[in-house]
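SAMPLE LOG
Freezer: B-3
Tube label: C17
Construct: single chain, 349 aa
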Amino acid sequence: MRLISAISKIGLTGWILIGLLVGVVIGLSAPEAARQLAPLSNIFLRAVKAVMAPLIFGSLITAIAGNGDLRSTGRLGLRSLVYFWVVTTLALACGMLTAILLRPGVGVTLPRAAEAAPIAPAPGFGALVEQMIPSSLIDAMARGDVLQIVIFCAVLGLACAAIGEPARPLIAFADALSQVMFKVTSYVMWIAPVGVGAAVAVTIGHGGIGALGALARMVLTLYAALGLFTLLVLLPLLLWSRWPWRKFYEALRAPFILAVTTTSSGVALPPLLENLDRLGLPKRITGFVLPACFCFNTTGTTLYIPIAVLFTAQAAEVSLTPTQLVVLFFTLMITSTGAPAVPRASMLI
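STRUCTURE (predicted):
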């Protein structure tokens, strides 16, 4: 019992840090053995990927249709969606701009195959639009095509909101499914220390200690983008809203700590709803805006994805033309919308 208590006190974040340090030690001391740990990292990624599709399905339908007929939300729904689109677009721009200026992937050495695979030609705009439409939801879920799942579930959520009461069983099922998948995700995250440690060991086993420097540059680039986004977007919005600082702090303190310590923003939703209700905000507003926000306003993920993509391109010495950067920007505008509040979901996207 004392051992279990000690393990619990360390917490998941602490164990992930321990796993990271163990991975560094293994990668430095036994590079050959470290390279054999790739399956452990892949098991963790596969486990997270397994919960992605059902979680997106439940979360999106609940966010869109859970508050009843969208027409009853009127201007609230329109304003919320416009706000989400504008803010996530600004977050994406901050992430892309920071990665282009700081170039964290330049000079990184990647393990290469004996013969490089040919680069497939970029699909045209028509083919890109065609690929957005799923021929089968089951097929899209089996392949883990996040964009197709998002589009199907968004249309399904709108249909549920349009027909109203007859769709209540489906909405209740979606809500229960999302809650269950959040719980399953919490179980999966307990193998995260092993997965993280194995991934770091494999990276260092291939690239040596220099790989850590490259990853550190990427992390610092992400923090720079977060700082830029906070100063240019979030802080002005807070000042413009005229929301009292003390109330803002009281409402976000516990949910923020919970999200940071569990590395999952999804677990912050219940206490945040409770805090805002206690502060007197109408449930018809918080009940729609917050769940939708956790699906459509994932600015942290939106910041990270372009940095990760450009970091990889720079490390692989692939130069993207201005046209390709524009296509990438608009593609990520859509794709990042499907990122649920699951730890490290952005890696899979």
